[in-house]
Amino acid sequence: MKVEVAYVRGRSLSLSSSLKSMLLSPMDPITPPVSLLDLRFEQMQARLAADGLRPIHARTLWKVLYRELDVAPQLREALSPPLARWLRDHWGGTVNLTTATISEQLRSSDGMTRKLLLRLRDGQEIETVVMGYPGRFTACLSSQAGCAMGCVFCATGQMGFVRHLAPGEIVSQVIAAQRLLRAEGNELRNLVLMGMGEPLHNYDAVMQALDSVCHSPGMCIAPSRVSVSTVGLVPAIIRFTDERRPYSLAVSLHAATDEERSALLPVNQRWPLAELMEACRYHSQRLSRRVFFGWTLIAGRNDSPEHARILVELLRGLDAHINLIRLNATAGFDGSTSADASADAFRNSLKAAGVPCTIRQYRGIDVAAGCGQLRADRLERAR
Ligand code: SF4
Predict the structure, then answer these.
(1) Is residue 7 in a domain?
(2) Does residue 370 line the site of ligand 1, with CB under 6 A?
(3) Residues 277 and 351 placed together within one structural domain of the fold
(4) Measured in angstroms, how far is the CA atom of residue 290 from the centroid of ligand 1?
(5) Residue 371 is a catalytic residue
(6) Are residues 67 and 171 in the same domain?
(7) Mind listing the pLDDT tens digit for each residue in 282-313?
(8) Cα of 293 to ligand 1 centre, how many Å?
(9) Domain range spanning residue 297?
(10) pLDDT by residue (tens digit) across 158-189?
(11) Helix spans in the chain (H)
(12) Cα of 224 from ligand 1 centre, angstroms
């Protein structure tokens, strides 16, 4: 069945072949480790133990990687001879953090948002955004190169799916952000998986990476400060819930009827709103947690009082918070963000109905902070 999608500059889109195959088989296996950052703590411990090293060596190495961020050469020189020998024999003598290197960095005019373009070993480029708020810093991470979901307003969706990121490539983004912040005397506090890619499509790698950066001998990011976003892969939401993952769930909603949502998010054709909301209710009730919903405000398409009323009905009885997001314009989508008055009226309608909601700050527009925009800009410049 071909699924037609409206709104894209007079073109119609159909589900990409990678999305179709993903719908049949939602989670792909993790690729074999090519970096130390691809290993879980227990895996690193087991590998060291198999070569006769003691558990303390695993803790030391983990701290160098995740706490000290391997920035000072003397850290490696200070490693015990058996550990240094193991690194030389098995990992070419280096503590390999080069799964991703910064190839471009842009800073917003207010200095509060930085967008990093990271080059991976195979030449793929992904984006990481570091956002500063009063007293805290948040990194927005990518989970895939490209994306199979095809959300029509998204620059990453418009470029299509390339491949999943390995756990170490996701961890590398956290390390790159933390290094930048540390150099300025700051510390990363929050993580959001809202960059390029659908995190729950790359479930195992994402969960492993988050477990690694939250692990206590290392970076020790609080799981409660980590948010995983999805466009609504229902089986993965249920798995996330049943596994009692300690991270917040954020669902990109953007529309409250199937007709309107399917026109923006092709994945809604596979898991329509009734199934998605059932999964969200299951998550909220089973774990006693609030579900965060993203709603990108698009002028004239989802920002009227009637849209707000239907949304309130959809969320009735659910512990929910709505984040209203300004649309970042992309070349492949002819919509524009809502006027301030419409956005305020929409928010006020939700609040009047008792639905907690926030209009997210307009961050980093001058650094193409919308997901996939910097990479798309770069490709355009190269052409
Ligand atoms: S919004 Fe997210 S899920 Fe949708 S196409 Fe963009 S990256 Fe993929």
Answers:
(1) no
(2) no
(3) yes
(4) 22
(5) yes
(6) no
(7) 999 999 999 999 999 999 999 999 999 999 99
(8) 14
(9) 98-382
(10) 889 999 999 999 999 999 999 999 999 999 99
(11) 17-24, 41-50, 55-66, 73-77, 81-91, 155-159, 167-183, 203-214, 234-242, 258-264, 273-287, 305-315, 340-352, 373-382
(12) 23
